[in-house]
Design a protein that fits this description.
It contains four helices and no strands. The longest helix has 31 residues. The chain is elongated.
């Protein structure tokens, strides 16, 4: 499980850095400031959660089953949240109507929040059992 978390975390981190560079250097020239700001929000949340996956891979208080649930919640959350923001930010430039992605963004946020609550719950309950 540690390996899966590390691979997912590193993969999403690499992609976040690439997309961040794209946003900073190429998209600033073709997107409106608000679209660039939204794009950067997607990158920031993706990078935070990629780093969280890497960190959680080393948390010994969590079982492999709990880490697996965290992996799914964070990966689904990053895809739904960040990638829907990327699509919405780029839709005008790509001349594609992607407004249907709007309601998907909060579902991704809910998945990310659920991951954090799940981790908190598992860590608190672990301490309660052992004390």
């Amino acid at each position: 499980m540690e390996r899966k978390l590390l691979i997912a975390g590193c993969s999403f981190a690499v992609l976040a850095v690439i997309l961040g560079a794209l946003g900073a250097h190429a998209l600033e020239k073709v997107l409106e400031p608000q679209q660039v700001k939204s794009f950067e929000t997607g990158v920031r949340y993706q990078l935070f959660h990629a780093i969280a996956l890497i960190a959680f891979s080393q948390v010994t208080l969590l079982t492999d089953a709990s880490k697996n649930i965290l992996l799914y919640l964070f990966v689904i959350g990053m895809i739904l949240f960040s990638f829907s923001i990327y699509g919405l930010s780029l839709s005008k430039w790509l001349h594609v109507n992607l407004k249907f992605l709007g309601p998907i963004t909060p579902l991704g946020g809910l998945s990310l929040i659920s991951g954090w609550f799940f981790a908190l719950w598992k860590i608190i309950s672990h301490n309660s059992i052992n004390n």
